[in-house]
Amino acid sequence: MQIRFVTVDVFTDRKFGGNQLAVVPQAAALTSEQMQSIAAEFNFAETTFVLPPQDASHTAEVRIFTPRSELPFAGHPNIGTAYVLATDSEGYPRALPDPILFEEKAGLVRLSLMRQGASVVGARLALVGLLASLRPAPDLKLHLRIAQGVDMGRPSLLEASAEKKNGKLVGLLIGGRCVPMMRGTLEV
User: Fold this and answer.
1) Catalytic site residue from 33, 41, 46, 103
2) What is the sign of the dihedral through the CA atoms of 128, 101, 38 and 122?
3) What is the CA radius of gyration of the chain?
4) What's the total number of domains in the chain?
5) Is residue 74 part of a domain?
6) Is residue 41 among the annotated active site residues?
């Protein structure tokens, strides 16, 4: 059986930077054991497998595997998977809704696409809020640009924002750009 894959670098605007991710956009024919074996073969921090959603009002079911086990949720795999689905019409032929809703082991994950003109350049994920919640001000908007991976030679840049009104968090986002790296076919 032949299965298509795409790899992307997440949280970066340049090749060979950021967090590596392998995405299998049409994984319905694979077993959990095959998914685990494929993730081990890629040997990236995470590999995602896209399946039809259980609920037709959602975008897709997404399963996330490390080389050793399945994860209920992880940040950069969601960003990269949304980017791949938005930019790979051969692997995912449907138009993406806004917001995107992924079904994952941890529950529903809501994302929105980042666009520059007509091009999709990344995605945003509701996730960040700890710093805003720790600040004493009852109302604030916090915007951060977080650099990571520089010492490892894979620089990443995350864009994060949080909004607090009357002491409660009302908006949380983390996002970043993605760069396509490889496309190919797996022989399973």
Assistant:
1) 46
2) negative
3) 17
4) 1
5) yes
6) no
Find the CATH number of the domain harbouring 6: 3.10.310.10
pTM: 0.85
Token pair for residue 135? 């600040």
Q: Which domain holds residue 39?
A: 2-110+178-187
Report how far residue 159's alpha carbon sits from residue 5's, in angstroms, rounded to the nearest whole number: 27
Residue 153 lies inside a defined structural domain of this protein: no
40, containing H or E segment: helix 32-42
Tell me the per-residue pLDDT of 59-114, one tens digit each, with 9 for 90 and over: 999 999 999 999 999 888 999 999 999 998 777 777 888 889 999 999 888 888 88
Q: Is residue 106 part of a domain?
A: yes
CA angle 91, 157, 127 (to 5 degrees): 75
Q: State residue 48 phi and psi, 5-degree precision.
A: -110, 150
Domain membership flag for residue 28:
yes
CA gap 24, 63 in Å, rounded? 10
